[in-house]
Design brief:
Pfam families: Epimerase_2 (PF02350). By secondary structure, the chain is α/β, with parallel strands linked by helices. Helices cover 47% and strands 14% of the residues.
Length: 366
């Protein structure tokens, strides 16, 4: 079986890292393609190093741009590579522009596409990710649902049973693989002078928060108020750094919060495990909070990962309120949620690899 796996943005390196571990020794010839959507060392290469992910066979180096420009560059580059590599199938992850471009380029060449993390919906069509994932799911050949809810959503959308597989969530695999490593190897708590359960960890990068000055001001204001009671660590996505700079509030925030560069995965896991509370608009970090049983405020109006709200682990805290009320919520002590296991057994990678082999392994090569 010859595959082309396509990645491009930070969460996709984490997901592909988990699947690559399961692929080792399977006999699959996987050609890893990096679109270059993320390119700073600490947004890209650090993950390949820490997750033992082989360097990509190809890097398209598309870089940043508007949605159309970025996606168009990827489409052109990926079409050429798929024609040259002639894989039996293409494997894509999540909901970024890299996911969308790889899916479209492949299906138009008649190459089947398998989608890891299919069936998630926020039902908010102003979100670029919602467009990317609904378009991708609608044309993919194989849909790996991370949860029963995602599987049922695909059924409701009329996807035939033979396309859907309940795999569990590869991010849970990644979390299990990394927990001990993070405890043993990361020195980030010492480096930042942080005590176990003595700080709040925040991440912000979602367009709806960074590109709306009012929301971003409320959010940063709330974190600054919370920081009067508890240190707040904010590894800053480059998009958010640029937005704070544009608004002229970066320096003030840097005086009150522990603003740090994006960290590698091992340090991130260590921070997550030790945080008293996590506040985030990230899809991945919302779930990692639950994997380490840390209460989490989701800085959005809705989420794809509703089971964590229902079980009482996470709660929505959209930054459209006043900063004082938000800060109080961020600091509130909360009981643990219900014990649930929606993301499988940590063997999603293995299920994905076996399904790919069954489905495409015996195809005669075109
Ligand atoms: C992208 C994904 C989002 C995902 C996120 C993970 C899309 C539409 N969005 O959002 O779903 O949650 O990645 O982090 O695909 N930049 C740098 N260096 C980098 C990368 C980005 O400076 O290595 C800056 C650039 O100014 C760029 C901006 O960040 O314009 C946004 O990057 P982009 O990849 O377009 O979107 P993200 O917000 O990262
Ligand atoms: N992450 C990291 N360092 C950081 C911020 C996030 O390693 O400074 C990891 C995080 O633990 C998770 C993944 O990146 O595994 C999530 O990526 P991101 O929040 O950028 O994207 P999303 O999941 O929202 O698409």
């Amino acid at each position: 079986l010859k595959l082309c796996s396509v990645v491009g943005a930070r969460p996709q390196f984490v997901k592909a890292g988990a699947v690559a571990k399961a692929m080792a020794g399977s006999g699959i010839d996987d050609v890893l393609i990096h679109t270059g959507q993320h390119y700073d060392f600490n947004m890209s290469e650090v993950f390949f190093r820490e997750l033992d992910l082989a360097p990509p066979a190809h890097n398209l180096g598309v870089g940043s741009g508007s949605h159309a420009v970025q996606t168009a560059r990827m489409l052109e580059g990926l079409e050429l590579l798929f024609e040259r590599e002639r894989p039996d199938a293409v494997l894509v992850y999540g909901d970024t522009n890299s996911t969308l471009a790889a899916t479209l380029a492949a299906v138009k060449l008649g190459i089947p596409v398998a989608h890891v993390e299919a069936g998630l919906r926020s039902f908010n069509r102003t979100m670029p990710e919602e467009i990317n994932r609904t378009v991708a799911d609608s044309v993919c050949d194989l849909l790996f649902a991370p949860t029963v809810e995602a599987m049922e959503q695909l059924r409701r959308e009329g996807q035939p049973e033979e396309r859907i597989r309940l795999s569990g969530d590869v991010m849970y695999d990644a979390a299990l693989m990394t927990a001990d490593l993070a405890r043993r190897q990361s020195s980030i708590l010492d480096r930042l002078g942080l005590a176990e359960k003595g700080f709040l960890l925040a991440t912000i990068h979602r367009a709806e928060n960074t590109d709306d000055p009012r929301r971003l001001r409320v959010l940063i204001g709330a974190l600054e108020l919370a920081a009067e009671a508890l240190p707040v660590v904010l590894p800053l996505h480059p998009r958010t750094r640029a937005a704070l700079d544009r608004l002229g509030i970066l320096q003030k925030a840097a005086r009150r919060l522990k603003l740090i560069e994006p960290v590698g995965f091992i340090d991130m896991v260590r921070l997550e495990m030790a945080a008293r509370t996590i506040a985030t608009d990230s899809g991945g970090v919302q779930k990692e909070a639950f994997f380490y049983r840390v209460p989490c405020c989701v800085l959005r109006n809705e989420t794809e990962w509703r089971e964590l709200l229902e079980a009482g682990w996470n709660r929505l805290l959209p930054p459209d309120d006043d900063p004082r009320a938000m800060a109080a919520e961020l600091l509130a002590e909360r009981p643990a949620g219900r014990d649930i296991t929606p993301y499988g057994k940590g063997d999603a990678g293995r299920i994905i690899v076996e399904t790919l082999l069954d489905r495409y392994g015996r195809r005669s090569r075109a």
